[in-house]
Design goal:
224 residues; Rossmann fold; 7-stranded mixed beta sheet; 3-stranded antiparallel beta sheet; 6 helices; 32% helix; globular
Length: 224
């Protein structure tokens, strides 16, 4: 893996959050209202596993959050941006799902605010490929493992190093590039495997979605 900058400046992190706040404030459905392919796959998998409680990281505008709740899961969602928390809460209320969705502002660089073995599954779409250093992702992976019950699943999706935008924009260290207003951390299979410490890799599925199109991995891990 390429060497990364040792520090992500606080001003950069704040600006990234502000950029996301701007996107979701102007258009809460900027990424569409339909659930992602990943969420649809995850729902089938979670149902087969008997999952009841899901921790979602980086809920954005809540398109996957609401879909998970509509399928009977109790979802605790964490997001760095106030606008996301407000949007998800509002959508849950409008959908009659307030009892199934709890949204909270949280920076995943810090300890996840739940106890050990609290959840049946963890889900995220795009969170890992935000402006997070590999050391911060290692910490996050350890935290996810801590809050998952034994033998339970972590499903996440990330942009790959085969994505058309990889290597474009401003290089921000390692496999991170600032493309437009956002820093994107692109993933190789080597990085996926590196971050799977303490988990069994069930699947690394490659797929395409959205404009360009974006090329992604959907990673399914089971806590050992």
């Amino acid at each position: 893996m390429q060497e990364e900058l040792p520090v992500m400046l606080k001003e950069t992190i704040v600006q990234q959050c502000q950029n996301w706040n701007n996107v979701f404030s102007e258009n809460p459905d900027a990424f569409g209202e339909a659930p992602s392919q990943s969420a649809q796959k995850a729902v089938g998998l979670f149902k087969n596993e008997g999952v009841e409680t899901v921790l979602e990281l980086g809920g954005g505008a809540g398109r996957d959050t609401i879909y998970l709740a509509q399928n009977g899961f109790r979802v605790s969602v964490l997001d760095f941006c106030d606008s996301s928390v407000e949007t998800i809460t509002r959508k849950a209320q409008a959908s009659g799902l307030s009892q199934s969705v709890s949204a909270m502002r949280h920076d995943v660089r810090n300890t996840i605010p739940f106890g050990d073995e609290s959840f049946d599954a963890c889900y995220s779409f795009g969170l890992y490929c935000g402006a997070l250093l590999t050391t911060e992702l290692e910490f996050l992976s350890d935290e996810i493992r801590r809050v998952l019950k034994p033998g339970e699943l972590n499903v996440y999706s990330v942009r790959t190093t085969e994505d058309p935008r990889y290597g474009t924009g401003t290089h921000r260290g390692g496999d991170m590039y600032e493309v437009g207003p956002f820093i994107v951390h692109f993933f190789s299979k080597e990085k996926v495997e590196h971050l799977a410490k303490g988990f069994e890799i069930i699947d690394i599925d490659e797929f395409e979605e959205g404009d360009l199109p974006r090329r992604l991995f959907r990673v399914t891990l089971r806590k050992k």
